[in-house]
Design goal:
The chain is mainly alpha-helical. It has eight helices and four strands. Strand 1 and strand 2 (about 55-60) form a beta hairpin.
């Protein structure tokens, strides 16, 4: 299952022109990131995609390289820069994911690609979120984003997979534009505000045992 017929065509019809139009903005952001935080300007991380196959998602860097006396990276909140906060709040850090859409690793709309370490903690129902390509935006993002508890966020992903359609994708894209313009439900410092799903569910399993 990869969604409805025509979903890939919609992705390309929007992502290719968007990349062309936004390329000057991306060039400026890349230059600012390289200047303020060093190279490379892009941050890549392997995450599970369609069918849980791994791929490298690309975003603009929002954190600087900084280490403690033992050579360990400082906590995210100490490495997050003012420019990084702006990029996250404006969602400009997500623009390189258009390349992932064009190459077919992502879709414009779909469940957000979460980190690989969460895979063992999904329920069987939640694993269906990987039955479609992950998206730059999705049903969870327009219904609370990081403000939603994990169970609700994953339930939104499962609901999207079950109801995926052209009309729903267009609705989500329209809602996303409104959210981005209003900067609604944005948490720029997720290390402070968001629990770790693997820790949360490990603790839940331990208490139930």
């Amino acid at each position: 299952m990869t969604g409805y017929r025509g979903k890939r065509a919609l992705d390309l019809a929007i992502a290719v022109p968007a990349l062309i139009v936004l390329s000057p903005v991306m060039a400026v952001v890349a230059a600012l990131v390289a200047w303020r935080m060093g190279r490379p300007a892009l941050f890549r991380q392997v995450r599970p995609g369609l069918g849980e196959r791994p791929f490298a998602v690309a975003k603009f860097r929002t954190m600087k390289e900084a280490y403690d006396a033992a050579g360990r990276p400082l906590p995210d909140r100490e490495r997050l820069t003012a420019l990084g906060r702006f990029l996250r709040a404006s969602s400009l850090d997500e623009l390189p994911e258009l390349f992932n859409v064009i190459t077919g690793e992502m879709s414009l709309v779909g469940p957000r690609p979460l980190v690989t370490k969460y895979l063992p903690y999904y329920t069987e129902r939640e694993r269906t979120r990987c039955a479609v390509r992950p998206g730059i935006t999705g049903w969870a993002q327009v219904n609370g984003r990081n403000d939603l508890p994990w169970d609700q966020r994953l339930a939104c992903d499962v609901w999207y997979v079950a109801h995926c359609s052209l009309a729903l994708d267009l609705k989500i894209l329209g809602m996303t534009i409104g959210k981005v313009l209003r900067r609604a439900n944005v948490q720029v410092d997720t290390a402070i505000n968001e629990p770790d799903l693997s820790v949360e569910r490990h603790d839940r399993r331990a208490s139930a045992a």
